[in-house]
Design goal:
nine-stranded mixed β-sheet, alpha+beta
């Protein structure tokens, strides 16, 4: 009987359960999608190739986010409980025991939990595939849809059960010990007025000034360079920005609506003054919550933008770091054999993946020059091949040594010398040699000197027609072919420009995944708290709407008043984090202007607007759902009053 009563209550209260159901289902879907990503085959590959420690970090993040979600769902469950406290108080008055009430509420919670679990899992199936497609496209990984894991499902189920247990236990405590009078009549609350308006005006000025000063300081910090020597300064700037983001919605709400209540225009049309008074009271009593939500949204918007900006920077920086598409350096000929003997086989393996445009193979030696100084030595024939690859034609050195030096203009030139034993100095670009040493470390020697020199290492450099190939697979095959290990070896190092790009972007992608998960939870926390808080306040406002109805206000007037109230309450915490996009945009462009690193800024405006728009879309969905539930509640309540 009690379970049937619980099922009937859920059906009758479906409007009240809508926001709760949406919140719980989205939370479960998000947990399911992320846990499946953590235990997917793609993640297995990335953990092996990129960062073995990333999976434990993601698991810890997921557990922390579940604790936060437990708070969200606990708040939602408490909202439903308090919304129906008169009903439960009536049950107790009619003779039901506390255990009967707890059984009814437990039955309702179980029904809602099971329905939300099924819906969340179904949504999570699609969400997981969508996340995987976006993630693998971001890291340029070939992904075939599918691949749900039993580990991901089991961890999700355990987390969700724990979340509901915590939320349900908190609600049971309230029902067991709440007095019947409290359930029937509620807790007496009084509308809070704005006190000391001059103080709030001063605090608003301080908040705006703090935001401007912190933004300018951030740009100045970027311009000074040598960032690691000024970490303390950056910490202070970030704290100032966070303080201003917290204070702006709180102070603005108090000052603006206090000012509006002082003006006669607010009472000149319809229910304008009623709307402003409602907003003034709500924002005064919930200012701290608005500031806190503003901080959460700031983290949710700024964090992903920083990681996404790093992606474009890495892509452009690779071109300046890697002169050739593929290079190989063998320092241990005795251990791995001569690379020069494997060149043809290596090139044949490369051609299975990509077309070769040009290549060069040469050896570096060590030996004493005429001044008895140790130099890296390149044979003249190998030096000529290197120059030809770059389009240079070196002169005849006449069988003498030639010093190498860095060219100031990045070109190629030769200065003869009468110095004994030297033909002169050849000035070459910094990246002509593959090994990374400065050109000043090299000497060009005649080929007949080879027998007198000691082999230091061997080099193979390859340029490809296109970088559109499976760099991960080619890298593994090259290492397996040359060293016998697909994991690579520091002694025999292949450098594939495309592989390094994928490696770097995979690292950023893994951390971005964790950051986006945190951002998604913070956004869900913000909208859920706002929606439930607003609906709770609307329940308390029923007598005011009944009074408006009796005074002759139309349904359209009340609907507009409710719409404006909820619109302001929903989007007030959003504007301060949105303002952070301005200093973030200027700071990144400043860094691009002063830094030697090539930083991509062309796509930055679209990126900033896109992420902010995504958060705004989530707010809009919750706002519309909350408004429909609230207006249905208000309209049904005033009509019941009229019949009596």
């Amino acid at each position: 009987m009690l379970f049937k009563l619980a099922a009937r209550n859920v059906r009758r209260q479906i409007g009240s359960y809508l926001i709760y159901f949406i919140t719980v289902s989205l939370a479960i879907a998000l947990i399911f999608a992320v846990n499946n990503m953590i235990y997917s085959d793609v993640m297995d590959t990335l953990v092996q190739q990129v960062a073995y420690f990333i999976r434990p970090i993601l698991v810890i993040i997921s557990c922390i986010m579940c604790i936060i979600m437990a708070f969200i769902i606990g708040y939602a469950t408490n909202f439903l409980l308090r919304r129906r406290k008169k009903e439960f108080g009536l049950y107790l008055t009619l003779g039901m025991t506390r255990d009967n009430i707890l059984s009814i509420f437990a039955g309702e919670t179980v029904i809602t939990f099971l329905v939300s679990l099924v819906a969340g899992m179904l949504v999570g199936l699609g969400l997981y595939q969508g996340f995987m497609v976006i993630f693998t496209n971001y890291i340029d990984y070939v992904y075939t849809p599918g691949g749900y894991t039993f580990s991901g499902f089991g961890v999700t189920l355990a987390m969700v059960v724990a979340i509901f247990f915590i939320a349900f236990a908190a609600s049971l405590g309230y029902l067991r010990y709440a007095k019947i009078a409290t359930l029937l009549h509620g807790e007496k609350t009084s509308e809070k007025k704005v006190r000391a308006p001059a103080m709030w005006i001063g605090l608003l000025v301080v908040a705006v000034a703090l935001f401007i000063i912190a933004s300018c300081s951030l740009i100045g910090w970027m311009r000074q360079g040598n960032f690691f020597m000024h970490i303390g300064e950056l910490t202070l700037i970030v704290l100032m920005l966070l303080a201003s983001v917290f204070m702006l919605p709180l102070c603005l709400a108090k000052v603006v609506f206090w000012a509006l209540l002082k003006r006669s225009c607010c009472s000149s049309r319809g229910a304008g003054r009623f709307t402003v008074r409602q907003l003034s009271g709500k924002l005064t009593s919930n200012g701290l919550m608005m500031g806190t939500l503003s901080l959460l949204l700031a983290v949710a918007i700024v964090g992903p933008n920083i990681f996404l900006s790093m992606t474009g920077t890495m892509n452009e920086q690779l071109d300046s770091e890697y002169t050739y598409d593929i290079t190989a350096r063998n320092h241990y000929v005795d251990k791995y054999g001569s690379l020069m003997e494997k060149v043809d086989d290596v090139l044949e393996l490369v051609e299975e993946y990509a077309d070769i445009e040009s290549y060069v193979a040469y050896s570096c030696y060590t030996g004493d020059d005429y001044d008895n100084e140790l130099f890296l030595v390149v044979l003249e024939s190998d030096f000529i091949k290197l120059c030809a690859l770059w389009g240079y034609s070196p002169p005849d050195f006449g069988g003498k040594l030639v010093r190498c030096a860095l060219s100031e203009d990045g070109g190629f030139s030769f200065t003869p010398s009468s110095e004994s034993g030297y033909a002169g100095t050849v000035y070459i670009p910094d990246d002509l040699f593959v090994s990374g040493n400065s050109p000043d470390d090299y000497t060009v020697a005649p080929d007949e000197w080879e027998e007198q020199l000691t082999l230091s290492y061997e080099i193979l450099a390859v340029n490809l027609v296109s970088n559109d190939y499976d760099a991960r697979a080619l890298y593994a095959e090259l290492m397996l072919f040359t060293t016998g290990s697909a994991d690579g070896d520091n002694d025999y190092l292949f450098n594939l420009r495309e592989w390094h790009r994928l490696y770097d972007i995979s690292q950023v992608g893994l951390f971005l995944l964790g950051d986006l998960y945190i951002s998604a939870v913070f956004v869900l926390l913000s909208v859920a708290l706002l929606a439930l808080k607003v609906l709770s306040m609307i329940t308390e406002d029923r007598p005011r709407y009944r009074a408006l109805w009796r005074l002759g206000a139309s349904e359209g007037t009340m609907a507009r008043s409710l719409f404006v109230q909820m619109l302001v309450l929903f989007f007030l915490p959003f504007f301060a984090p949105l303002l952070l996009n301005i200093p973030l945009y200027v700071a990144i462009n400043t860094l691009a202007a002063i830094s030697s690193m090539p930083i991509a800024t062309a796509s930055l405006p679209g990126q900033l607007l896109g992420l902010s728009g995504a958060v705004l879309a989530v707010f809009a969905v919750y706002f519309l759902a909350s408004f429909l539930v609230a207006w249905r509640d208000v309209k049904s309540n005033i009509r019941v009053e009229v019949r009596y």
